TrEMBL record:
UniProtKB keywords: ATP-binding, DNA-binding, Nucleotide-binding, Transcription, Transcription regulation
A Pfam family that the UniProt record links to this protein: AAA_lid_14
Species classification: Bacteria, Bacillati, Bacillota, Clostridia, Eubacteriales
Protein name, entry field: Transcriptional regulator containing PAS, AAA-type ATPase, and DNA-binding Fis domains
PROSITE patterns, alphabetized: SIGMA54_INTERACT_1 (PS00675), SIGMA54_INTERACT_2 (PS00676), SIGMA54_INTERACT_3 (PS00688), SIGMA54_INTERACT_4 (PS50045)
Organism, scientific name: Desulfosporosinus hippei DSM 8344
Length: 588
């Protein structure tokens, strides 16, 4: 690193004056650019000017060796000088100012009479040693100034970095006095920069400082004293030779952490009712009902078989509610092991159980604050957790595992299940009180087999979608293929239909989807069903008539049975005779 003599001009001048006073001889000191930094006598007025005639000094800077000249104007180093042979100087001594491997300047002694020259020549070695000591002093001072300058720059850089951090930073000494803090810490703790600050004036410090005194780290929630904000702190003790000298404390606003976690974990897929495909009467009624209740705060229960789109409907309801600007958090109660589900829902405090993360964990209820929590497959939730869910719904407060403090939450719960909760209540598998608390507004999504008229429009939707996703467009789908899809029973519902279309798009890639393109199970079931229908049509009709007659058996009116069947009384009599249905005497 190059240390500049010009940065310590006053010190260099003081050194030149001291040398001149001690040796009674003129002194000049130049830097590495041959600019005179200091001088005595006639040279003093020339400080700051380049030394155009500094041929001797240039040689010293180049070689790094001291030079003694007792015949100025005639020495070979003087040849380039325009004053050679007519030099006013009697003698000259020049030594380099060396910093490690760099030459940063030259100290020159110049005599202008016989007496000064004699002193120079008689004491050459001691003078050189003296000048070397003076050079070392200058190097030391230049080095100190440069280091201070570098330290100031580093400090400025570190302060800038600290102020750019999204965490508040406190540096604390062993007496709990704040020695430094960044801008965010000042904001979070309401620090007055005009006052000296003690840690216990700003934070509830007992727990964290006990950890510091033990030489341990600390992480957890801390309450501010000047502000009502709950803060999350990480504290690391500063040790030197085993002695605690203070600590570094990082601070984060709990609410900000929640926002960051939400941003990192929440699926921000916006779903609108227009994206729920289906024009059948049942789907139109369902969407109208869902749209009507979406703006309310009511808890909803969505029932439907697997693959019918329960989460899709829940997202559409959230997006049409006043909570759409907040989180939609989904959790599948049947997919998470029972021992983990509670901590996922309610969170936990640090150290509440073996394996708990440092600092604890925020639960899904807290993450969904002001938003919507979707509890999918709630029918698979254990009974002991059902009690806790009920308490949250009633009290609007949640308590983390290992904590005695309850946290207020404003969450709309939408539950969903493919199971028969009504029957589960009767068998004791599901709490009756929770069932009625959830089932405020029930919404039932019909299985695809009950709305087969929606299959063509759903098929086109998935064709368009998977053509983009797989980058494999198709030229179309044959009427025969649509017919097969429209007669399949779809045990996997809309999800299964989507999978079938993805398979077809992948297989034909640019061609036409035909009956032969379909997965084998789709084609096989369809053919079997058609064959069965053609062979047993009369049996089905006979069975239907018998069921209608059974339904009206109490009153015994065949006219009512005819109405159920949508045929006339005469037609019913004819069918009874045709299919040889044994008439119960109670029929009239």
């Amino acid at each position: 690193m190059l240390y500049y003599l010009r940065n310590i001009k006053s010190t260099v001048q003081q050194t030149a004056d001291a040398i001149a006073a001690a040796l009674k001889i003129e002194v000049e000191i130049a830097d590495a650019d041959l600019v005179r930094v200091a001088g005595t006598g006639k040279y003093k007025s020339q400080c700051g000017c380049p030394m155009d005639d500094g041929f001797v000094y240039r040689h010293v800077l180049k070689t790094g060796e001291p030079v003694i000249i007792d015949n100025p104007g005639f020495n070979e180093l003087c040849h380039p000088c325009p004053c050679k042979g007519n030099c006013m100087e009697y003698a000259e001594v020049a030594i380099p100012i060396r910093s490690d491997d760099e030459i940063i300047g030259v100290i020159g002694l110049v005599s202008f009479d016989e007496e000064q020259t004699k002193r120079l020549m008689d004491n050459k070695q001691s003078l050189l040693l003296f000048l070397e000591k003076m050079a070392d002093l200058l190097v030391g001072k230049a080095s100190e100034i440069q280091q201070n300058h570098d330290r100031d720059i580093l400090t400025s850089q570190l302060v800038t970095v600290l102020n750019l951090l999204h965490d508040g930073i406190l540096l604390v000494n062993d007496q709990q006095q704040i020695t430094h803090y960044n801008t965010l810490a000042a904001k979070l703790l309401d620090i007055d920069e005009q006052e000296e600050q003690a840690l216990y004036h700003l934070l509830e410090n007992k727990k964290l400082w006990q950890a510091v005194e033990r030489g341990e780290t600390f992480s957890g929630n801390i309450q501010g004293k000047r502000v009502a904000t709950q803060l999350y702190c990480d504290v690391v003790p500063i040790k030197k030779d085993g002695v605690i000298e203070g600590a570094v404390i990082t601070l984060r606003d709990i609410q900000q952490i929640k926002k960051l976690v939400k941003a990192a974990t929440v699926n921000e897929i916006e779903t609108h009712f227009s994206q729920i495909v289906g024009n059948s009467r049942k789907m139109k009624e369902l969407k109208a009902m869902a749209l009507h209740v979406a703006p309310s705060k009511a808890t909803l229960l969505i029932q439907g078989e697997s693959g019918t789109g329960k989460e899709l409907l829940a997202r559409a309801i959230h997006q049409s509610s006043k909570r759409k600007g907040h989180a939609f958090i989904a959790i599948n109660c049947g997919a998470i092991p029972e021992n983990l589900l509670e901590s996922e829902l309610f969170g936990y405090e640090e150290g509440s159980f073996t394996g708990a993360k440092r600092g604890g964990k925020i639960g899904k209820f807290e993450l969904a604050h002001n938003g919507t929590l979707f509890l999918d497959e709630i029918g698979d939730m254990p009974l002991h957790l059902q009690v806790k869910i009920l308490r949250v719904l009633q009290e609007r407060r949640v308590e983390r595992i290992g904590s005695s403090r309850s946290i207020p939450v404003d969450v709309r719960v939408i539950a969903a299940t493919h199971r028969d909760l009504d029957n589960m209540v009767k068998t004791g598998e599901f709490r009756e009180d929770l069932y009625y608390r959830l089932n405020v507004i029930p919404l039932t999504i019909p299985p695809l087999r009950e709305r087969l008229e929606d299959v063509p429009i759903l098929t086109q939707f998935y064709l368009d979608y998977y053509s983009v996703v797989t980058d494999r467009s198709v030229s179309g789908i044959t009427p025969e293929a649509i017919e097969i899809l429209s007669h399949y029973t779809w045990p996997g519902n809309v999800r299964e239909l989507g999978n079938v279309i993805e398979y077809c798009v992948t297989m034909v890639a640019g061609g036409m989807i035909t009956a032969d393109t379909m997965p084998k199970r789709i084609r096989t079931e369809n053919k079997a069903e058609i064959k069965d229908l053609s062979l047993n049509l009369k049996a089905l009709e006979r069975e239907t008539i018998m069921r209608a007659l059974t339904l009206v058996n109490i009153d015994g009116h065949k006219e009512d049975a005819a109405k159920l069947l949508g045929i006339s009384r005469a037609s019913l009599y004819r069918k009874i005779k045709e299919y040889e249905i044994e008439e119960n005497k109670t029929f009239t």
